[in-house]
Amino acid sequence: MSLFERIEKEYIEAYKARDTLRLGVLRLLKTSVKNKLVELKRPGGSLSDAEMLDVIIKEGKQRQDSIEQFKAANRPDLADKETAELSILQDYLPKALSAEELDAVIAATISELKATSPRDMGRVIAAIMAAHKGQVDGKALSEAVKARLTA
Q1: Which of 98, 124, 101, 102 is nearest to 113 (CA)?
Q2: CA distance 113 to 65
Q3: Is-contact 29 88, C-beta < 8 A?
Q4: What is the DSSP letter of 96?
Q5: Radius of gyration of the chain (CA)
Q6: In this predicted model, what pLDDT tens digit does every residue of 27-77 receive, in sequence order?
Q7: What is d(CA 134, CA 29) in angstroms, rounded to the nearest whole number?
Q8: For residues 138 and 146, is the Cβ–Cβ distance under 8 A?
Q9: What is the CATH number of domain 99-150?
């Protein structure tokens, strides 16, 4: 079952179960998918798993930004709601890499690309993000690569 079909199926299940939080998140996700289809000039079609992953990652980043802003504005109620929505979105993302796995991937990529200085940071990050889409946090990756290349 593709990611697109899974979301459609779970949307119906959430509707029948009257799970308002999950239903709201999936409804927003479906809207984002429709917008992406219109953007790609494929209305009525479906997205590939890679395209669906891009949409889910984008929605997740929006939730993370909102959480940071709500915490800065001292609105824990809204931050909690966004955190709950983010956890639902993360159900559709691949399992994140652990710190040890990330270190191993960074070391392998640096040696593979023969990166030696911080100027090579962009190539290393781009290669890792392409190979491990949805499994790596960009900020954490950037800091780890920078630390590895400046040491």
Answers
A1: 124
A2: 32
A3: no
A4: P
A5: 18
A6: 999 999 999 999 988 887 888 888 898 899 999 999 999 999 999 999 999
A7: 16
A8: no
A9: 1.10.10.410
Distance CA 53, CA 135 (A): 11
**What's the rounded Cα separation, in Å, for the pair 33 and 46?**
8
Contact 122, 138 (CB under 8 A): no
| Per-domain residue ranges of the chain | 3-90, 99-150
pTM (2 decimals)?
0.77
CATH assignment of 3-90?
1.10.1510.10
User: Is there a shared CATH topology between the 3-90 domain and the 99-150 domain?
Assistant: no
